[in-house]
Amino acid sequence: MVDAEDMITRIEQKSRKIESLIKQPVEALKTALEGSPPKTKDERCKSANWNVVHRAIMAIKAVDLMFSSLDPEYYDVLMKYLYRGLSTGDRPTCEQCLKIHEKLTQKAGLGCILRALSDTVNTV
């Protein structure tokens, strides 16, 4: 099992990579979603990774076009982060998460929502 300090270091590295990819928002999002802290209970890791994913989500302007280059393997974890974004209550974040949620649900179906909400082990 990876300890929290190692995980934080990896998240910081990912954050730096995201900054270099921010002009390519889908690539930034893929990078942010890769290696999301699975099965960790450490809130520092979850919060640090949320900050990276949030930055990538907010950089996406063309939500419709996003799914033409986002692989289906990312759909379920993205849905989890969208719900985390909605839980913030921050208006711009919620608006962006709702836009993406609508398109993701059209693309991935209702099963994506059910998997995101029912998975209580791999929370983000």
Walk me through this protein's architecture.
With 124 residues, the chain is mainly α. The chain is 73% helix and 0% strand. It contains seven helices and no strands. It has helices spanning 4-21, 25-33, 43-59, 63-69, 75-86, 91-108, 110-118. Helix 1 packs parallel to helix 3, helix 2 runs antiparallel to helix 3 (43-59) and helix 5 crosses helix 7 (110-118). The longest helix has 18 residues, at 4-21. The radius of gyration is 14 Å and the shape is globular. The mean pLDDT is 92.
What does the main sheet amount to?
Answer: none
* Extended strand count: 0
Q: What's the SSE pattern?
A: HHHHHHH
* Count of helical regions: 7
- Give the proportion of residues in helices: over 70%
The average pLDDT score comes to 92
N-end to C-end Cα span: 17 Å
Instruction: Give the overall silhouette.
Output: globular
> Helix/strand/pairing class, anyone?
mainly alpha
| Percentage of β-strand residues | under 5%
Rg computed from alpha carbons, rounded to a whole number of angstroms: 14 Å
- Low-confidence regions: none
